[in-house]
Structure formats: structure tokens, C-alpha cells
Design goal:
It is a single chain. The strands form four sheets. The protein has a seven-stranded mixed β-sheet, with no helix packed on it. The chain has a seven-stranded antiparallel β-sheet with strand order 2-3-4-11-6-9-12, with no helix packed on it. A four-stranded antiparallel β-sheet has the order 5-10-7-8, with no helix packed on it. About 0% of the residues lie in helices and about 55% in strands. With about 240 residues, the chain is an all-beta fold. It starts with a strand and ends with a strand. It has one domain: Jelly Rolls (Sandwich).
Amino acid sequence: MKTILHKSNTRGFANHGWLKSHHTFSFASYQNAKRMNFGALRVLNDDVVQPKMGFGTHPHQNMEIISIPLQGALSHKDSMGNKRAIEVGEIQVMSAGTGLTHSEFNDSKTDEVNFLQLWIFPEKLNIEPNYNQRLFPLEGKKNQLQTVVAPKDKLEDNALPINQQAYIYRTNLDSETSVNLKVKLQQNGFYVFVVEGEIQIDNTSLGKRDALGVYETENIQIKANQSSEVIIIEVPMN
């Protein structure tokens, strides 16, 4: 088993006033040759958007884009005709494929929006763009794994489809509880991101916004040292 530790305070940071963004991997003005990706996972941004502010219309192409709200609601509009808010508990996925444009705004007059945005390299290029969004019940991740994203040809439970052999799981663990994960494909690795709390993987302790990449292993165990919220991204490493 091989691991790579990314502590929260080693992430890139940009403060644009209306937007505060922590970058796990190289993004925009944050460039780090040692932090380009973890396998097919290219971007993991932790964004806080101020009230009545947001990202104007901009393009994407040949990327799988996953948005996970942690606080507040983010209004989304795109060139495929989708126009709706993404709220806490929901997951949004877009397969950008041949190309699309979209905008994301915080419509609240008083409250910040905090959301994670992940980019995953696609399995196939230039597919027809696709959009999906779904609310996942809180009880489905209580002390167990909840699969929220899966390959479009291997969907399981109520997961949303993406164009890659990748999976995203969520779990809320009580203190002293644990979950076990086994890779779906031998070439896959796990990227474990702690939203809140403190967990243990083997001899490594992870706190809030810390992350650990684990690969060249068939399975891992995640134990909560205190009540914790965790997101696990399983991606091909080649």
C-alpha cells in the first residue's frame, strides 16, 4: 500500500473578495508540480462564495465535474437548458464532453455558500454533454457508505452517472465507528477527504479538510476518532 498525505494547510489558497478558494491540486494561479492530480482526480476545490456573488457563464470541455454543497444553496444555469439550485444533501454531475457553458451563483442576500467542486478526467473524449442532480437522504450515509457517483455503465444504488470508472462515496461516522472499502478495479486508488471531524487510516490521523491518497492496495479501513463527515473518491490511477 502506498499513501500520499495532503494536510489542509498545504492547499493552495486564493482570496478574490467575493470568493475564497482552497485548491488541493494545481488550479488557476496556484501551480505546484507535485500537486497536479491523484490518478484521474484533477481538481478538488473548496470554495466559499459571498452573498449575491458567483461565477459568470464560462465553458468546460472533456471533463467530469461534480459539485457538492456543504453550506447554503448554489444556483446553476447551463447551455443544456438546466436552471435550478443545488442544495446541501444534493450532488450535481456534469459530463462536459464536446462542450458546454454554465454559471453558478449564490442568490442569498445574507448567507455564504460553501461547496466542493471536483474534476475527474473522462474515460472517453467528445461525448454528448450530460447533466444530473439528485438529493441523497442523510440516513443513507449514517455509519455506512453511500455511493453517490458511479460509472455510467456500472451504476449502483441511486448513484449519478459519470464518464469514467470512478466512484464517489459519502459517510457520516459516529465516534469509534468504522467503514471498510474495497477497490472496484485493481488499478483504482482512494482519495479520502475529511469534511469535518477526525479519522484514522492505518497509522495516519486526518483532521478537518485533510486528505489521504491510498493506492496499490485492495482495501482500506476508515475509523472515526470523533464524529466525522468523509468523502471518498475512487479513481483509476493509470
